[in-house]
Amino acid sequence: MASIAEFVIPAEEFALRETLERRPELVCEVERVVAHDTTHIIPFIWVSGGELDDLTQLLDTDPSVNDIELLSDTDGERLYRLSWADEARVIGHMVSECQATVHQAVAADGQWTLRVLFPDRDVISEVNEFAREHELSLDLRRLYEVDNVERARFGLTESQQEALTEGYEHGYYEVPRDIDMGALATTLDISHQALSERLRRATGNLIENTLLVDETEDE
What we know:
Order of helices and strands: EHEEHEEHEEHEHHHH
Number of helices: 8
Largest sheet: 8 strands, antiparallel
Structural class: alpha+beta
Strand content: 25-35%
Low-confidence stretches: 213-219
């Protein structure tokens, strides 16, 4: 049966280690990952929580980053398309060798937290062995089975789920609304633009992982 595993790995053993060492206040949140093999890993990643003016230059000098492209620059948050080097090879192994899906990857407070959906629970032991062989401190914190793979957390990141939940609980989706986007953004301690982008991405993930599930299965 499919399972979701939650791992923690020190930032100094994973991607963006120099960037996070120089700017420990940054929060990096991977939106999605494309991995062609264990060493060709392309994440789309949102960065927030600190000084962003020279972030592109800082990322460009990080040895764990091969290529970088700035896709979006909103108030207090940036979206990059990166190409990660060997430091992120454990993610490449999960995706390309184990057919896993990275639901969440967040760097904060000196560590990366990974939430990964595996189609078969047995392959997780292969991931642990891969980490040991490469001397990575990959710590499995939680493991649980899911009955419906496509609907597991609906493909939402933690921050996207929080934005949707807070919006619902505060009446943002009522007609008329009990709270506007500006006030909701203040509640979440993010900018109006950042909230708008987060709700848009969350809605897209919900559509892809709920309304389009049957279409994908029929292909």
